[in-house]
Amino acid sequence: MTAHSRVRGNADAIAPVVATALPRRGVGLDEFRWSPDGFWGERQSTNRDATFAHCVAWMDRVGWLENFDRVARGEVTEAHAGWEFSDSEIYKLLEGMAWEMAREPSDALAATYADLVARVAAAQDADGYLCTAFGHPGLPERYSDLEMGHELYNVGHLLQAAVARVRSHGEDPLVHVARRAADHVCREFGADARQGLCGHPEIEVGLAEFGRAVGEPRYIEQARLFIERRGHGTLAVRPLLSADYFQDDIPVSQADVLRGHAVRALYLSAGAADVAVETGDDELLETLRRQWSRTVERRTYLTGGMGSRHQDEGFGADWELPPDRAYCETCAGVASTMFAWRLYLATGQAQYADLIERTLFNVIATSPSAEGTSFFYSNPLQVREEAPAAVANEVNMRAEGGVRAPWFDVSCCPTNVSRTMASLAAYAASIEGDTVALLQYGASTVVAPLASGVLKLRVQTAYPSDGAIRVVVDEAPDAEVTVRLRVPAWSRASGTAPGGEPESLARGWWDVTRVWSPGDAVLLELDTAPRVTWPDPRIDAQRGTVAIERGPLVLCAESHDLPEGVELDDVVVALDGSLAADADGATVSAVARPVSGASGAVAYAREPYEPLAETPLTLPLVPYFRWAERGPSAMRVFLRAEGSR
Amino acid sequence: MTAHSRVRGNADAIAPVVATALPRRGVGLDEFRWSPDGFWGERQSTNRDATFAHCVAWMDRVGWLENFDRVARGEVTEAHAGWEFSDSEIYKLLEGMAWEMAREPSDALAATYADLVARVAAAQDADGYLCTAFGHPGLPERYSDLEMGHELYNVGHLLQAAVARVRSHGEDPLVHVARRAADHVCREFGADARQGLCGHPEIEVGLAEFGRAVGEPRYIEQARLFIERRGHGTLAVRPLLSADYFQDDIPVSQADVLRGHAVRALYLSAGAADVAVETGDDELLETLRRQWSRTVERRTYLTGGMGSRHQDEGFGADWELPPDRAYCETCAGVASTMFAWRLYLATGQAQYADLIERTLFNVIATSPSAEGTSFFYSNPLQVREEAPAAVANEVNMRAEGGVRAPWFDVSCCPTNVSRTMASLAAYAASIEGDTVALLQYGASTVVAPLASGVLKLRVQTAYPSDGAIRVVVDEAPDAEVTVRLRVPAWSRASGTAPGGEPESLARGWWDVTRVWSPGDAVLLELDTAPRVTWPDPRIDAQRGTVAIERGPLVLCAESHDLPEGVELDDVVVALDGSLAADADGATVSAVARPVSGASGAVAYAREPYEPLAETPLTLPLVPYFRWAERGPSAMRVFLRAEGSR
Fold it and tell me: Where are the domains positioned within chain A?
């Protein structure tokens, strides 16, 4: 197979989600390519050249790979390395490697992949059970801790890895392992078997997609069973947890908002969306869409980040969006993208792609360092004091945010970033009959096998630095087809069709339908001037502030850029039109207004606090994804604004 | 002994803290009495008549008492009931009962007390070790989990109970048990023995005071050792915890602010203050005072509540004071009172009594229901949605706040409230040479054995409902002595000495020195009109809001009082002078300004949000301590104020 040349049916797409029941599908990794020197292309290269090896080395060092070898050798496990879910990290990495090899073959990567798969396969039991933390000598019994044991969660990630491999390559040892594991799960947890479910959803989305990928309806049915079983208080509640932590409080079909542990809630929702589509359950799909809408409107940060609480790594109440204690786990960003993508495929609505863009640029791109070897786990929107530097060569225990670390005690984020980066092309465009929709922008090429024939496009842009997006046709069928461009909700936009005049565009879609000739071009112009963004007044923790955005990028202020003696929390920005673009960020006029409190008394007064001084300054803002690149810093996304007390 | 008649030296005071090295001491329970129909007197009666029996019944029901019996019988423990610290709940209750019997003897209470003490004593090992969760058949080894095992913490509470008993009654079986336990701890953890410390401080404050009470310097020295040992990273850090959780990150003598688990930090500080006083370590005392000042100025809520995070039940960073996620554990209020009281005794400064007042009225008084049989565990300052009602007859698992529950899985607060209520007189006044200082106001009587003779006072007031406080002399020595009255920082105040004119008073102290005659009276007038209070602008989560206070009481708005269809979070109060007193609360003009967000988009806009409507209303405010008395409600202390977005 040659990249950029195949024309295929939906079912063959090299993509994480392929729902043959739907009229549209995402492009495959061989149909869309980010330019290597563009925003995402650069990150994909870093992922390939640095992150994979980094993760393998750490997993080796901390014993997560050795876990498999010991089980394979039949030895008694004295101390299982890592948490019960450490196996899943290897699977997420294998998924990333499988996508990466589809993006760009590599003998070195293929060798590493084959070695890892062999070690995984050797640890699988004869009946298909596969887990290094349970069910072997020295370990607890199989399925003895469904609440926190993560056995099915691990299998879910194994299945997602196998999806990547079977779609990009075909049958191989990993796919074989995954089939045996999925069969085992169906036997153990089928309708007439154990009525259990896993404390951490993931098996649902894994089974549903693997069922699609290998054409096995039993797997999809098992996913449906798991979704249906959830929400009836089956999982035992432990002290200081409640059933909403693992979404076992209310059935998915009856909930009205996401709640509890954010990654759990989002993986579950993604799996439920797959089940809804595969079973034609429109009511379930509608419920999920309502849950998504309220969650996005009331429980989501400007960055797209989800999870307002460190406690339980969970969603908060509506409007509970503190910038400082924002958890916004990187993995929740990945999971949110998974959920939104499925709703986009099911509905074709631009709002889902809007959220994906926000999340990709401001959560996913924020996590890894430029070198791809250290990561943010949580992504708060304010840090008052510079975090202590990460311990460079050690496992970092905490996930407080403020500093990227090479590895964590719970190290779910690096591999999740890695698999997302490798498969990122799949979320960039979709195909539906004679329409190709461009969803995510950046210099790229598209080969879209439309109903009437192949349409090849080149996207020329410096996005996100610049809002001009030129789409050039390189090859087109001899029939009328549509190029559909997403007009992000954040932008005032204009579009120029071939030979036409610029026209103003409303948010949503801009469709240009015609018989195209090579060389035809459309121009979409988005407004990437820095802009002021106002939080909803119901968000108490952000009142009296504004954020500054530029294109799809949320900007932030860092203490690195403040004059000596000025504290970031004393800075109040002017809303006087002084906002100006600067490099890839902006500058804005501001004033530092320090106050002093009463000694030995609580921080409250009978009159509004009067500033001790007024120091004018020009405040530079940088993209949030660059935060802490210059070392730990105090940082704010939400800036006190003129008139704020 | 007859209450209200003894004259004694400092060392004999019936009080929780008696530092003979200091020139001042708090009054004993036989020297100060709250009027039964006053604010605190009523609560003390409820504590006596309802709370003790409530707690005993629950401890019996959940098996925490049976834990002692099983150990006493030498049986194998199959399942220890409750957490490792459940023993401490019995000790806190015994402490409360001991104080209560000193306040007002009761045969019924004496019988219950004796029964409980006998069951406790029966479980003590021959070498003095006493714990039902470790060190017996079926249980983990002694001291095998110093980080989270709470064995020494339990002993600390036992010692505090014995302090109450030995001071109010003299030797008895509980005091005997406590001596043997303290001796055991000194042997096991002395300078030349195991260099360990307990993950939860409390043993320090227990040993220090018990050492004072029974005149045993070894106990005080052991407390000093424990304080000195802390802060060197001795305790093993577990995943998702760091050493600051149990204050093992920095030695007490070198820290600059309280951090980590709030109750731990405050108990530790109280013990360190005792050690500083007893060893004459002025440097340590000065360090503790600095830590207290920064903590109060930057990490304390308007209510006096401490602990900004549910995560780790901990302090947050400076200025991290979210109303909605305020943890403000009731026990942290108790612990803060313990710490501040010791600093008051050491320094004689009014600021410490100011914080105690704030905490007593707005944290301690808030926790119990009017019936004294259900309790708030955490005391948030905002709840957006009515909490589900507590399960009346079951152990409640969560401590989210918003509803009082009869018992908790971790049920530390009910007994902590109970022992504080019973001993509350001890914090109300102090004696120093020929000065009696009145620190906490309410209808009460005082018998102060001053250097020159006994001074008897009657305090006539409807405080906190009214700010007029009349102090009448009933008996006085034939010498010049001083009546010192605290002038709270929150009040404009005036004072009228016998035969004098009203004079304006500055915050701090008002001293009236003279040779008093029976019938002489002084009048302190505090301003209890409702007043607007402004948060420091550095508190991000309270920006654009004000609070309303009245006297020492923080007020709040409850959804119960809103017109149909108005949401509390849409209400903006006017700063137009419309604030008026109403019953024991206030009313203020306000307007409801609902907004609507964009569907399917994050809650941010390119222009300030425009209200959909403006509905004027009069907003009633009630004392925060009355919150949820009418059933679960949405509630706010910090109200959006005119001009807030």
Answer: 25-427, 433-526, 531-641
**CB-CB neighbors (< 8 A) of B237 in chain A:** 397
Neighbours of B507 (CB within 10 A): 18
d(CA B58, CA A438): 64
Q: How far apart are CA B268 and CA B274, in angstroms?
A: 10
A629 is catalytic: no
Q: Which residues pair with B524 in a beta bridge?
A: B469, B495
Structure tokens at A313: 């790594």
CB B106 within 8 A of CB B53: no
Q: What does the DSSP 8-state code read for residue B3?
A: T
Tokens 């887990």, located at residue: A131
Verify whether the Cβ–Cβ distance A601 to B541 is below 8 Å. no
ipTM: 0.93
In degrees rounded to 5, what are phi and psi of residue A255?
A: -75, 160
Residue A20 is predicted with a pLDDT of 84
DSSP letter at A361 equals I
For B8-56, how does the pLDDT look when each residue is reduced to its tens digit (9 = 90+)?
Answer: 445 679 999 999 889 999 999 999 999 999 999 999 999 999 999 999 9
Q: What are phi and psi of A245, to 5 degrees?
A: -55, -45
User: Helices B350-359 and B330-347, interaxial angle, to 10°?
Assistant: 160
Count Cα neighbours of A560 within 13 Å in the Cβ-side half-sphere. 14
Q: Which of B540, B553, B596 to mutate to test the interface with A (most CBs of A within 10 A)?
A: B540
How far CA B8 is from CA of A322, B14, B429, B437, B439, in Å, comes to 54, 10, 16, 17, 21
Token look-up 């850029």 returns: A561
Of 3.40.50, 1.10.10, 3.30.70, 1.50.10, the CATH number of B25-427 is 1.50.10
Which of A32, A25, A33 shows the shortest CA–CA distance to A348? A25
Sheet containing A429-432: give its strands across.
A25-26, A429-432, A435-438, A480-487, A508-515
Does the pLDDT at position B523 exceed 80? yes
- pTM for this one? 0.95
Token digits of residue A592: 């530092």
Active site residue A412: yes
DSSP B250: S
Architecture of domain A433-526: Sandwich (2.60)
If pLDDT is split at 50, 70 and 90, which confidence band does A418 have? very high
Tell me the chain B residues in contact with residue A241 when contact means C-beta distances shorter than 8 Å: 397
- For residue A8, pLDDT beyond 60: no
Decide if A591 contacts A571 (C-beta within 8 A): yes
Q: What is the per-residue pLDDT across B444-496, written as a single tens digit (0 to 9) for each?
A: 999 999 999 999 999 999 999 999 999 999 999 999 999 999 999 999 999 99
